Amino acid sequence: MPKTRGIVSRGRIEPMTASLPEISSVSWSTFMTGKNPGGHGIFGFTDFRDSSYGLRYPSFRDLKVPTIWDILGDHRLKSVVINQPATYPARAIPGVLISGFVAIDLEKSVTPVHYLSTLKKKNYQIDIDAEKCRDNPNELFSSLDALLAARREVMDELWEREPWNLLEVVVTGTDRLHHFMWDAYEDARHPHHDDFLAYYRTIDDFIDHVFSRFQGSGGGENFFILSDHGFCGTKKEVYINTVLQNEGFLELPSGASSLEGISENTRAFALDPARIYLNRRGRFPRGSVEREDIGAIVKDLMAVFDKLVFGGEKIVRRSFTGEEAYSGPCSQNGPDLLLVPRDGFDLKGRVGAKEALGERRLQGMHTWDNAFFFSLDRSLIKGGDALNIVDVPGTILRSLDVEI
Question: What pLDDT sits at residue 220?
Fold first, then answer.
């Protein structure tokens, strides 16, 4: 990526930790609000229905606080936001918003709605067809190229048609590439190694195109690049609920494939990727954990996962209590314990796995502490700062003389 290297050499790039858990719905919600999940209310792609063990899918409507685009609007500034995850269904912002995944209907993914015809004319797609692309490399690479080309065309048109103070475009193709084709990156002899690198050259060209347009329009130094999490290769999947069953924390009927059959004897259970909830009395229908027992149970859980190993290697790198991870009025809705895995161990909340460890289904997995943030203006990133994605929106707003 020589063009991107040239851009980065002009500013400052630093490692950054992502949200907890390190998944896109949570990290992007943090990015767009400057709040952790205890503030914005999004804890995962799934969450519990009220007073239930059944699941629901949080949407943009569930975000509890204003976004940075709303804040800019309060200062009469406008934004153009393209392919932003966790914003479906799209709602009006001061400017233009095109939702990213998980968005199931293009018609509900754009505001103002008159831009829907523009998207359709350019054959704009929200995402690749994962089922088609997962085991079909040729389909994957052609889909990734088409996806990015359409994003670029739409960005160029909105750049000209809309007056904007903040323009943002999210590239999700790298995420899909890493999940499905990480092996091609690591193995130079892989039949698709060159295809993998070629896509990154396409990304390099895209970043250079955006930067050149920005510089050409007199944009100054307010140019940023970031990721919402890092990536590494996957060795094994680890099923947290199976561990909890084996250790006597979770009791489910034989053959259960969901958490809805939990018994009163259950003390803890998990949602993806590694959010562990105590079966608290008053919070869940068959809750049995009393408030005074919470600390001891959490301590016992941390000890269990600290001892979890595969091939002599510890699986869990670090544990966070809910109190350590979250602050804000929504914190009570979050998990009681979060696990951060060591690289290669893809933690899952799947119910019904017979063994605690299984073969990987994805070649690449998210990582928590090697996201990054780049600012062309070096002064916006202070030396020695331990950056977290929660810090990013405030930095961007300050570059526009707005305080979050």
Answer: 86
Which of 337, 355, 345 lies closest to 243, judged by CA? Answer: 355
Task: Provide the domain limits for residue 390.
Answer: 2-231+366-399
Residue 354: count other Cβ atoms within 10 Å of its Cβ: 7
Q: Looking at the structure, do residues 142 and 204 belong to the same domain, yes or no?
A: yes
Task: From 83, 213, 203, select the one nearest 154 (Cα to Cα).
Answer: 83
**Read out DSSP for 295-341?**
HHHHHHHHHHHHS-EETTEESEEEEEEHHHH--STTGGGS-SEEEEE
Tokens representing residue 136 in the block = 């079909």
The reply to whether 83 and 184 lie within a common domain is yes
Helices 193-216 and 137-161 pack at an angle, to 10 degrees, of 0
Mind listing the pLDDT tens digit for each residue in 301-324? Answer: 999 999 999 999 999 999 999 999
pLDDT digits (tens, 9 = 90+) for 64-73: 999 999 999 9
Average pLDDT rounded to a whole number, residues 106-122: 97
Q: First and final CA of the chain: distance in angstroms?
A: 33
On whether both 194 and 88 belong to a single domain, the answer is yes
Whats the size of the chain, residue-wise? Answer: 404
Look up tokens 């007199």; give the residue: 218
Strand stretches in 203-274, DSSP E:
224-226, 230-233, 236-239, 268-271
Average pLDDT over residues 130-141: 93
CA proximity to 393, closest of 380, 379, 383, 377: 380
Domains identified in the chain, total number: 2
Residue with tokens 């958490």: 259
Containing 161, the helix (H) or strand (E) segment is helix 137-161
List CB contacts of 126: < 8 A, sequence separation 6 or more.
83, 99, 100, 101, 103, 106, 109
Tokens of 266: 């259950």
Residue corresponding to tokens 């494939």: 257
Q: What is the pLDDT of residues 372-391, one digit of tens each?
A: 999 999 999 876 668 999 99
Neighbours of 288 (CB within 10 A): 16
